Amino acid sequence: MAEHEGSDGGYLLDNRQSEAGTRFEALAEIFDPVTFRHVDRLGLRPGMRCWEVGAGGGSVPLGLAERVGPTGTVVATDLDVSWTAGIASDRIEVLTHDVASDPPPPGSFDLVHARLVLVHVADRAEALRRMVQALRPGGRLLLEDADPQLQPLLCIDEFGPDQALANRLRTAFRTLMAGRGADLAYGRTLPRVLREAGLVDVEADAYFPITSPALTVLEAATVRQVRHLLVEQGLATDEEIDRHLANVATGRLDLTIAPLVSAWGRKV
Fold first, then answer.
1. Among 164, 160, 151, 175, which residue's Cα sits nearest to residue 256?
2. Rounded distance, CA 154 to CA 165, Å?
3. What contacts 41, CB < 8 A, 6 or more positions away?
4. Which domain holds residue 168?
5. pTM of the predicted model, to two decimals?
6. Over the stretch 28-61, which tens digit does the pLDDT of each residue have?
7. 230 belongs to a structural domain
8. Alpha carbon distance 262, 268 (integer Å)
């Protein structure tokens, strides 16, 4: 997963912040089984060539490399490759790359995958066009993105003040995302945008985890990463943030996350 530049030229969740590594690990624990269930269903085999857009912490490129074997290749790209550079090998090429403005990596691909990327990209249509362009005939595009408007709460069981505070802070976080150009209803559009891009055999599903230790780790790291913005913009006080982080640290809050919509299609 990559974190992308917002409409004001800044980063909401900057890869260079220390919390980014914690977030990447938590996201991998939560979503890698979902991603690879789809990848395996799409028939990724030894010798194939993949492009991982927004490689983030590197867990997905590594999993793809295992599947394509020594005769296959994986190109892993991101705006900031500081968490990915270490995975470069004879079958994984790591490139600094902006999917919305740079040409696709050379050659064609059997699989192009992006997870939690396009929701943050201002010119989503152009990024999608470039990913489709990079597919070989018969190649598959797998897009996975969140839909925070579909389920906006952090605690879906809001039975007390701790849960109410958690949901207020999640609303504040969504306000920050929208202010940086994120489309908070993008996930639900994925089947349509794949069809409009000319892909066929389009299918989709969604994954909605409700509580897990990884979700607790993810929430704490995310709040710490954006707390200065929440305070600066008057969306929360330091006292509220400290109280929420203390509540999260108990492990007794059932925290969730926006549904991850996965959609895939084939280039004719």
1. 151
2. 10
3. none
4. 19-266
5. 0.93
6. 999 999 999 999 999 999 999 999 999 989 999 9
7. yes
8. 20
